[in-house]
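User: Round two. Same drill as before: sequence, then structure, for each protein.

Assistant: Same drill it is. First protein:
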Amino acid sequence: MSTAHANCTHPKTKSARAACRKAAKGGATVAPVVTPLATEIQTPVAPSHTIQAVTDVTVREIAMSAQIDSFQLEATREKVEKINARAAKKGLAGTLTMTSEPVECEEVDELTKIKRTWTEYKVEIKGNAPAYNGWEFVAKLDWDANAGLIVRNIPGVDSVVNRETVKEGWCDHCKTTRQRLVTYVVRNQETGETLQVGSSCLKDFTGQYTTIAFPELSSADDDEEGGFFGFRGAEREYDPATVLAVAWACVKLEGFKPASNFGNTTKGDVLTALYPSKSKNDREFAATIAPLADEASKKAAELLAWILSDDFNGPGDYVVNMKAVAAGKFVSRRNIGILASAPQAWAKSLERTLVREREASVYKNSQWFGTAPDKAKGIKASRHDLTVTVKAIRYIDGDYGTTTLYTMITDEGNVAKWFSSGTDKLGENVNARFVIRGSVKKHDEWEGMKATVLTRCTVIDELEPVEGE
């Protein structure tokens, strides 16, 4: 406390301290006496959970409830804490308490047609909201850049605003001028005195945190529920199966696009599908997933089981993080990118399985077959009818759209690959069996495994899977 303020005889209020400092700078030896506002509380009142009236203060019981998302839950909890702290600082009686209970929600998305599951919270706020006694809210003052001052009186109240005395951005309660485009007028019901106040100070006069007459007062601090229940658009947290279904559909439609990709990424596609904006492009993209909805849900169940199984393993944090996110009840928005990579990780795992099976002598005899074309030598590609079993499927993003890479095993034990563009001619199921006809494009070798790459393939027949595969 300053020396000047130590000599004061008036209450030790914020406005008084400011006056003391100003006087001290001007060389005054005796600090001026500042008359406190009629509404200032000189003696703090202990908080209470019962409805009571004390000097200059009315404690009003409130009770409100809502079902909100996780973001709004945190915002509401912070709001309650802020209100209780404000009341304690000002010495106002009354406190607020908040309880919450999780509620699982489910719906079929109108755009993607994928069943979504997320959590919301049933929240109740109860307690006693403090306010200065005998004051009522009567008007809103709106300083418009074009029209100047616009006065909006509460319905049923005659005009009480003196346009000559109100000042833009000024608050009679805290005695400050700020960048306020809107201020409010409150009136003492007994004396008729009016005060111009800002949005924060308004709460001290209106029976804090209860509904205000004008819904248009909504803002970060003042909404129809007095600032409770959040003030930003909901950000749902979906369950892992929902995220995996959308991720699988996005990878199938667009191919896998890693975070290092220039431009769009698979993570971005998944976020667009889960949280589409009102833009036409976002909503049209989300709608392209609809034909894959049933298939995507089935694949999501397989992906989830694989992630949580011992088959998905490896060193480093990637595997640990993926398992942790997949094992959770819901997925935070910031972790969606981890699950977005799951379809690609699964496809790579299936290909690595082929290598392990080869090393285990299952496909040790895999050899190249047929004749690869060589224009320089005038050699044409040979064409073959093959009975194959699909062992791995991967979606690859390219300049001309998405290509599906099928890795297959022929009945002779040779590995064949086919980069299929357009529709998925061999479907989506690993271990599916077909009779196909294709031309040899080239002979390839991957991690010691010889593979023949095919092109211009057609499906001759679809066979039943071999029992036990």
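Second protein:
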Amino acid sequence: MLLHAGERHNQRTVASHTSQNVYKFPVPFVTRRARHGVPAPTSMARVHIAVIVTSAVALRVPLRPTTRQSMRRIRAPPLRNDYLASISAPEPPAAAKPRALDENSISGDTFLGAFYKFTRPHTIRGTMLAAFAGVVKAIGDAGGLAKCWQWGLLPRALAGLVALLCGNAFIVGINQLYDVDVDTINKPFLPIAAGELSPKRAKLILTACALIGPSVVFALYPPLIVSLYLFGTFVGTAYSVPPFRLKSRGPIFAGLAIACCRGFLLNFGVYYAVLEALKVPFKWSPGVAFMARFMTAFAGVIAVTKDLPDIAGDLATGVPTLATKFGVGRVAAGATFALLVNYMTAIAQGVFGPFKRLPMVGGHALLAGFLLRNYRRYRQAGAEDADAVKGYYKSIWDNFYLEYLLYCFI
């Protein structure tokens, strides 16, 4: 089928008249040169249909928006600059963005989902790893599993873990109850701030934790462990609740509170409780002394870096932190340096102290390398980039978890 040279850009209009308006629409004018005159209308219709079907198959018009590569095949007149400036690419949905903390993406539509987020799982993991590592270290110092194993101690160990988890959930839960205004800005995914868990239900959960945890400790453990548990719960509560509200009294008080609970009290308390259950007299072993010192310093760094992703809400509500005073980039650099010093002291103790050199020297050197790699990635992404800051903070928790695994072999 050939097109006349003079008719390539011509169009014939078909008018449809009504009593008041005239509507016009273009119809392609296609002719062909045939040896035997003008073709019949039926033949023309078949040719027209064939052209439309062939064109549609060739273009492969997708149901979804085409990619940039496929759009280049279509030649269209260039768009004016003023039109391009008036439009912008739509923002991707919030759920499609990768999140630094996996608990943020959990749905709170059900009570279990809301409860899971309410307990702050990344802190629960740290507590469980501390309990596991403390038990392993205490059993090893007491003579080994073959000498110490008793089936009757298993329910007591599980009950102690439940008490620790109740204390953890109470401390992080009461913080959410008193920080709703700040969390609405900093952590809108948390269940109370998101409206997925009502304050009334949150108070019921906290009441259950406040009753179950101390009751288990009172029933099964000696007075020293009871005192440590109650003191840790009090410090964790004072961090958030007036009139103490240590988090609002400056970064030093807030850091000491977190370092005390998650550093010294947790590691020393678990180790002492296990030895007491095994009826082994307590004495300061090099391993538990190192771990109490090292993790207290590490928890202090976590207390500082936890404010890095929250700087917007802290500035809006007037909460004093190192990040609001010195900036995110400087605080991240200082925290990385502090952790490197902590790792260097661990390596020095591995060289000159009564420890196994491979885990103490090699293991801490490897963790220091992980820290530097993650800090470098954060700086490359941008010191003020929100996702990069969250990723950096998450990487510090990853090193925190790995330290407990290393503790079992030193």
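The chain has two domains: 1-64, 111-407.

User: Perfect.
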